[in-house]
Write a structure and sequence with these properties.
The protein has 26 helices and 22 strands. The protein has 688 residues and is α+β, with helices and mostly antiparallel strands. It folds into four domains: 164 residues, Glutaredoxin (3-Layer(aba) Sandwich), CATH 3.40.30; 330 residues, Glycosyltransferase; 76 residues, Arc Repressor Mutant, subunit A, CATH 1.10.10; 84 residues, Glutaredoxin, CATH 3.40.30. The strands form seven sheets. The chain has a five-stranded mixed sheet with strand order 1-3-2-4-5. Strands 13, 14, 15 and 16 form a four-stranded antiparallel sheet that branches. Helix 8 packs across helix 9, helix 9 packs parallel to helix 11 and helix 13 packs antiparallel against helix 14. The termini are far apart.
């Protein structure tokens, strides 16, 4: 095969670089491709995907590496390749168009545009020949090019009509509903109707983890003490942790389960899933005390530190589903491989039984490790104690992991995305304080340092970083998730710098993304390139929407700084969502959590300690605050006489009583009598 190099070789995105040697004459998104399309009077073929996408790799092998198909693409179109993770704005606009045209979406996404960016035809994966009712890609290319040549007016009119529909869909009327607890109740009832009683989670196959929904359900339980809400969360968390969707050897979660019982995953591992699920399992542990949830939290965060952390402080984006061109090959086992790896027959017998390998293959002749039975049941069947089984499985996990490390690893997408790193930073900060793990706190601080230096350009947050180069102006989700994460780092360390950095980002975000006339947040800043529409994503999907995180973030900043303007702005953005939250809870989990915070009560906790020493004497008070499930809280802390209380009403006038670490529990800055007793503080917080 002839060796080709195209323009993508100059990019930093790992996904674009994967296509740098295709015979397709790819362009990155930008004016050069548009100008050529106008000059040559050609339509644009826009192909969107991401590096860990299995079917993106399939379409590349079948079509983009095929000389005749690539030749057809080059002859008929100007071809643009986009990494959806770097350019969520482009992805969102044209995914909405494809969904409108076809009724479904997904990646790889293939969209045909006029040089002005009007979408007029599109789909997802196209095979190289007619297959399973899908038209062959060459036939699609020829048909679309012919339509663009001979029926231009019809094509443009269709594109303009589609664009108008998209603009109409983005206009959200002011909701007639008030922001009350009735919305939370209706959302709980909606989630309950979709709950899978047998395996946990929502609906049937494919089944996604949807951490934002379970965060909301935990909050609903905390607010109402409804035992059914907690039971749904527990069944879901336990089901996911024991399924093949969770990496039983290395920790961390795969993207989703292709079946209803969490067994067979789509094998890619995404940073955003693992950050959100680590936070969810942490909260599950705080709410229930279930040791399995703490173990999963720590294994997931340890996996991120071990395999996804850049030494400079950022976290990489994803690990691929494929290795050696085969989906899941890195993760699956045969009984013979396990027996050979575990020379001790008792350990091998325990591993085969515990991880379901004795039950026969469950994935293309091999076995995905999962936990089909309760460990106590397995221990009884093997005639050992549960503690003995746990020790044997610990030994087996270590040995199998070390052998798995010698296999060819899945590909790594080593770009650093600001928004996903904001989610990760928050998870490490909160877990570090809750578990007393200095290494987690250090990771959170390193991440904060990295995001506020390496990913800034003249005060403007950037979206993507790789190999020392940051690029693309940050979107609303980048500002909101990084800003929210910085609040978490402040609350875990009480270093005032991070709260001030968060506030600076908030002021910038309001200037860049808030539209006063439409009373709405938009995803792109006022300094962003003009697209056919200005994107505004309302829904919480696999990643929360920028708007929902911004609302949550502003409410917390308002509590810290006593800044009513932040609260007013957050509520202006939240009120129009009331009807949608009521009707379609599963698309608005982060909004529901923000509403729960707004409805309160919010425990405002001020901690003060004597200036002598390093504050370690306050550890019992910190444990009382961070060692319990209290989602609606803000925490500020300072040593007596130290700088850093200016502009923070929660700390104004607070002192350590009798030279002892002291806590003040407040509502709207009206505080109860201070306490120096950690047990008394714990009681007050439980009653909050």
């Amino acid at each position: 095969m002839t060796e080709h190099t195209n323009r993508l070789s100059r990019e930093t995105s790992p996904y674009l670089l994967q296509h740098a040697h295709n015979p397709v004459d790819w362009y990155p998104w930008g004016p050069e491709a548009v100008e050529r399309a106008r000059r040559e009077d050609k339509a644009i073929l826009l192909s969107v995907g991401y590096s860990a996408c299995h079917w993106c790799h399939v379409m590349e092998r079948e079509s983009f590496e095929d000389e005749p198909i690539a030749g057809l693409m080059n002859e008929l179109f100007v071809n643009i390749k986009v990494d959806r993770e770097e350019r969520p704005d482009v992805d969102q606009i044209y995914m909405q168009a494809v969904q409108s045209m076809t009724g479904h979406g997904g990646w790889p996404m293939t969209v045909f545009l006029t040089p002005d960016g009007l979408p007029f035809y599109g789909g997802t994966y196209f095979p190289p020949e007619d297959r399973h009712g899908m038209p062959a890609f060459p036939r699609v290319l020829q048909g679309v090019a012919e339509a663009y040549r001979s029926r231009r007016g019809e094509v443009v009119a269709a594109g303009e009509q589609l664009l108008e529909q998209m603009r109409q869909g983005e206009r959200l009327r002011q909701s007639a509903s008030l922001l009350t607890g009735e919305i939370l109740l209706a959302a709980y009832q909606g989630v309950s109707r979709d709950f899978d009683e047998r395996a946990g989670g929502l609906g049937q196959a494919p089944k996604f983890p949807q951490p934002m929904i379970w965060e909301f359900m935990l909050r609903f339980w905390r607010r109402t003490r409804n035992p059914l809400a907690l039971d749904m969360v527990r069944r879901t968390l336990t089901g996911m942790a024991r399924g093949g969707m969770y990496d039983q050897l290395g920790g961390g979660f795969h993207r989703y389960s292709v079946d209803a019982r969490w067994l067979v995953p789509h094998f890619e591992k995404m940073l955003y899933d693992n950050a959100q699920l680590a936070s969810l399992y942490l909260h599950g542990w705080l709410a229930t005390g279930e040791p399995e949830y703490r173990r999963v939290t720590e294994e997931t965060l340890d996996y991120l530190l071990r395999e996804m952390a850049h030494p400079a402080g950022g976290f990489f984006s994803a690990q691929d589903a494929d290795s050696e061109g085969v989906e899941g090959k890195f993760f699956v086992w045969t009984p013979e491989e396990i027996r050979a790896a575990l020379s001790d027959s008792e350990t091998a017998r325990a591993a085969l039984a515990h991880w379901g390998v004795d039950d026969g293959p469950n994935f293309e002749g091999d076995s995905i490790l999962f936990v089909p039975r309760d460990p106590a049941e397995v221990a009884a069947a093997l005639g050992v104690s549960p503690d003995r089984l746990a020790r044997l499985i610990g030994q087996a996990r270590k040995a199998l992991y070390e052998i798995r490390e010698r296999r060819v690893h899945p590909g790594l997408d080593d770009k650093v995305l600001a928004s996903w790193n904001g989610l990760t930073m928050a998870a490490f900060a909160e877990a570090g304080r809750a578990f007393g793990r200095p290494d987690y706190l250090a990771a959170a601080v390193r991440s904060a340092e990295f995001l506020t230096t390496a990913m800034m350009d003249g005060g403007r947050l950037l979206r993507s970083w790789k190999d020392g180069e940051a690029r693309i102006r940050g979107y609303l989700e980048d500002y909101a998730m990084v800003g929210f994460g910085l609040v978490a780092v402040y609350e875990a360390t009480f270093d005032r710098r991070w709260l001030d950095e968060s506030r600076r980002l908030a002021e910038a975000a309001l200037a860049l993304f808030w539209d006063e006339e439409r009373e709405a947040f938009f995803d792109t800043g006022t300094d962003h390139e003009a697209l056919v529409v200005r994107p505004r994503n309302l829904f919480d999907n696999a990643v929360p929407s920028g708007a929902s995180v911004a609302i949550d973030w502003l409410l917390r900043l308002a509590a810290h700084f006593g800044e009513e303007r932040y609260e007013r702005q957050a509520l202006r953005a939240l009120r129009p969502m009331a009807d949608l939250m009521t009707r379609s809870a599963t698309g608005f989990g982060r909004y529901l959590s923000a509403l729960d915070f707004h409805l309160g009560p919010v425990a405002e906790i001020a901690l003060c300690w004597p200036p002598a020493g390093d504050g370690s004497a306050a550890a019992p008070m910190l444990e009382a605050v961070f060692g319990r499930y209290l989602p609606n809280r803000v925490v500020a802390g300072v040593a007596d006489g130290a700088a850093g209380i200016e502009g923070l009403p929660l700390l104004a006038g607070r002192r350590a009583v009798d030279g002892r670490p002291t806590a003040y529990v407040c509502r709207r800055y009206v505080c109860e009598t201070p306490t120096t007793d950690p047990a008394d503080l714990a009681r007050r917080l439980d009653d909050a």
